[in-house]
Amino acid sequence: TLAFYLEKKREEEAAHRRRQALVGKKSVTQDGREVHVCCNVGNCEDVQAALQNDCEGVGLFRSEFLYMGSESLPSEEKQYAQYARAARMLGKKLLVIRTMDIGADKQAACLPLPHEENPALGMRSVRLCRQRPEILLTQLRAVCRASAEGNVAVMVPMIVAAEEVRWVREMAAKVQGDLQREGIPFDKNMQIGVMIETPAAVLIADELAEECDFFSIGTNDLTQYTCALDRQNAKLEPFFNPHHPAVLRAIKMTIDAGHRHGIWVGICGELGADTALTETFLRMGVDELSMNAKSVLPVRKIIRSIDLSKPSDK
């Protein structure tokens, strides 16, 4: 038994050394196609771990953790401090901040919500922001101010209509107008994108692409809503298939729609780290994959081994 595990240990150490040899190298295929490999984070400590694993940016900063860990709504200053610190840590690398995704399985004491029979389909994310616009205004002020400290973008979850994107852009324009009058610096070219995580968003992706600067596909919820499977229900795990052809087809449709309108498309759900699908996503044309920190180098290794000019053997 000892000999067996010592050999496993040696194999893992050798694999680790091979991965470390990829630090500082680009995530580029053998035929020259570059894909950005980024990280999903919840705070600045996670950003540090992402940088230690040589991430190429943060594709998803889960801002809701600021709300979930607070007894009162986080102030503009508290949010700004976190976002600005993360932006400075990343330097020129992109930091995509998702507006608060409170609701469903993410509950916050500072924002109590009434009981719902089906919270996954209820008052959450952008719907909650439309009901309480002052919360989004505070967050957008913090994000816009942080954009002066680095390469910051903002991303809105659970979008199902182009009108919702237009509303968010109007809110962002109001915030930026106020900041300009107050003499507070911000990036006037800050990107505004949306998460594609519902069948509705996939089906109107062309209309959504006209209103935003990028897409990020949230494969966890997209799988849940496409396959009608509650991902919080452990009893349904045997039926949960993230490789379902309908999910993969929805991802391809989204990438195609984004590229038709000249915007970049990333994946920030669990599938981003699924090396069994890395080549599939690259052949679909994905521009960015965002994942947990420890998956960055293994995924980069796969990317660098792929030659898209040759037919796939899968």
Which band does the percent of strand residues land in?
5-15%
Q: Ranges with pLDDT <50 over ≥5 residues?
A: none
Number of alpha- plus pi-helical segments: 13
Which structural class do you get from the secondary structure elements? alpha/beta
Quantity of strands, as a count? 8
What is the overall pLDDT average? 93
How would you sum up the major sheet?
Answer: 8 strands, parallel, barrel
Query: Separation of termini?
Result: 36 Å
Report the C-alpha radius of gyration, rounded. Answer: 20 Å
Q: Looking at the structure, what is the overall shape?
A: globular
Strand order of the largest sheet: 1-2-3-4-5-6-7-8
Give me the strand/helix succession: HEHEHHEHHEHEHHEHHEHEH
Into which percent range does the helicity of residues fall? 40-55%
Q: Can you tell me about this structure?
A:
The protein is of the alpha/beta class. Helix content is 45%, strand content 13%. It has 13 helices and 8 strands. The chain has an 8-stranded parallel beta barrel with strand order 1-2-3-4-5-6-7-8, surrounded by 6 helices. Helix 12 links the parallel strand 7 (264-267) and strand 8. Helix 4 packs parallel to helix 6 (133-146). The chain is globular. The mean pLDDT is 93.
